[in-house]
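The material for today's practical consists of a large collection of protein records. Backbone structure tokens are a discrete shorthand for how the chain folds in space. An example says more than a description, so a record of this kind follows:
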Amino acid sequence: MKEKFSIAVLGDGGWGTTIAGLLSDKGYKVTLWSAFADYAALLNKKRINPRFFPGYKIPKAITITSDLSLALQDKQLIVIAVPSQYLRGVLKKVKKLKPPHRAIFLSVVKGIENKTLKRMSEVIHEELGNVRVAVLSGPTIAQEVAQKIPTTIVVSAYEKDLRLFLQGVFMTERFRVYTNEDLIGIELGGSLKNVIAIACGISDGLGFGTNAKAALLSRGLAEISRLGHAMGGKVSTFSGLSGLGDLVTTCNSVNSRNRYVGEQIGKGKTLAQIQSHMQMVAEGVLTAKSVYELSRKYKVEMPIVREVYNVLYKNKSPLKAVQDLMTRQSKEE
């Protein structure tokens, strides 16, 4: 079955490379697609990913290409691992190439499109029509997964058989996969937590302690749950792997890009200065704008998100943002 089952991973970032390696190690035929021909050639020659995942040896069994048509050819599973702001553009190219009928599209993208405020699965359906879509999300630092450190994650799709099938595809002794039918909640949890991670990074950069971070984590989760429920997700989902689990990981890991951005802002750097030195995308920066707009659209109170938005896009002082959060009108928890 594994020899016949072919998988494409679209996106050569750290997470896409890790997923390609995990699936290849399980015996699946895997093709990793890079958007740029020169970088694909480098990956093929060196079998390392110096820009996005240095130190990881890409298995020789993985085919690496910048030819999207070749990447999609005869694939039963297409894993989408491109940054959220590039997703629609990549999907338009995929549509023109007419991907295999009944292919499964699995999104591992954590973001919300700025202009439309749509979730990634919604963008996939909008561009590709009535295709089979699933989402894989959870507390998964790529470096740890690649090192085979025990990790848990959750897969979601509206079809039960699809959830169970993908659970089997990805499950290993060190990569435990749960299923959850709440696709909306799973997708939102993985996206919204990045904004709170920026807030936690700002707290770190300002030199605050455990008390402040605990407040941001718990109150941030409350904000995520409120908006998620308003948008159709189940409140219980946000206490699970793609909610609380992913939130704790992203807010505390030294490898978290979103926490890093916040930390540097807390230390006095501007967003432009920080991004100019980053190879990989910190999804929370753009997601903060989308979530702020969603909170207004659904009339959900999200003070932490609002202050992160103000710091990122309105040049508000991080210390002033903290003061405004702490001096809001008193209320019940």
Remarks:
- The longest strand covers residues 132-137.
- DSSP finds 15 helices and ten strands in the chain.
